[in-house]
Write a structure and sequence with these properties.
Layout: H1 12-15, H2 23-39, H3 44-55, H4 61-70, H5 75-115, H6 133-146, E1 151-152, E2 158-159, H7 161-164, H8 176-179, E3 196-197, H9 203-211, E4 216-225, E5 237-247, H10 252-267, E6 273-280, E7 283-292, E8 316-325, H11 327-332, E9 341-348, H12 349-357, H13 364-367, H14 370-373
Parallel strand pairs: 1-4
Antiparallel strand pairs: 2-3, 4-5, 5-9, 6-7, 7-8, 8-9
Helix pairs in contact: 2-5, 3-5, 4-5, 6-12
Bound molecules: 3,4-dihydroxyphenylalanine.
Amino acid sequence: MDSARITAAETLAALGVTQPDQVAPLFAEIRSRFGLESTAIHDEPAWKTFRDAWLGRKSGILAQITDNWLKPAPPDLKRAVGAGLNELRAHVESQIESRRQAIESGAEQSALAREHVDLSLPGVTRPIGSHHLIRQVFQEIEDIFVSIGFSVVEGPEIETPYYNFEALNIPEFHPVRDDMDTFYLELPKGAPTPLLLRTHTSPMQIRTMEKQKPPVRVIVPGKVYRRDNPDATHSFVFHQVEGLAVDSDITFCDFTGTIEYFVKQFFGPGVKTRFRPSYFPFTEPSVEFDVSCIFCGGSGTAAGGGTCSKCKGAGWIELFGAGMVDPAVYGFVNYDAKKVSGFAFGMGIDRLAMLKYQIDDIQVFFQNDVRFLRQFP
Ligand code: DAH
């Protein structure tokens, strides 16, 4: 018998089966086809088609066997065919059912697998960002001063005119107030004192000395505000670090030595410092510190020849104001001007950061474009 030709669509006579012992191989062949087909069924739609192909009432293979093999079978074959068919049906039904269960639980498992969190996998790394360059420069400056005995203190950004001006020896009609015109807060009528956004960190000199007897060595990082129009070097909010050292025997040498130490630590040992006379109401004498131009090495000449555009050929760049604390200031904080002396300085951090990191527009510090920020991880 040619097993390839065995089909349930034809009668036994057409298949050439005439003896009872020819029946069993017939069913064996059908059963092995069923087995092969069933292994290819992996999902519910395929399973349904498969089930109907075998068990469908009208045209399923078992129905065809009943119609084509069993019903027309001659009496001497009927028994064998009936027995074979019953056995085949039992097998097919139980296999189809167990296949269904397997597919169902498999689908459940893969759904579970999708939800399952595998803790052994590497985690999702989320960028955590970094400190803003201004914050980093604050930190650099704090580290330098802390290493030589200064402490870091912070103060309010909203100040009274007394701390921002008067106690710093800037009386109401002093002309330097013109440069420091700022933002006053709108207050309810009858408020005890006007309030303003501090124009510098210097008020903290007063607040510190009010609280603390000498010796005092503090630096004050923070934001300050001025009514400046924004351009490449101006912003209505910027950052300063104030410094104050007061003790019984602080000299001008201590002062310049401290500043020189700081500037070399910050810009590198190769730079030189110098100071020029200047004026601040709260220091006497007052100076302006310069650093040898870090772009042209102090030569005033650009790398490719010509005048250095950064120092405009001077070889020096202005850094910040400073001075010996004016004795008048001690009068506001109950320090004995005959017994104490000290120095103070106030540096613009944005300016220092721009010089050190060669940034030519102060506005980038406030725009917070990540393409800029990422350059300083
Ligand atoms: N407060 C001044 C300013 O903002 C800077 C300054 C100058 C601070 C001299 C000082 C100082 O402590 O001694 O322009």
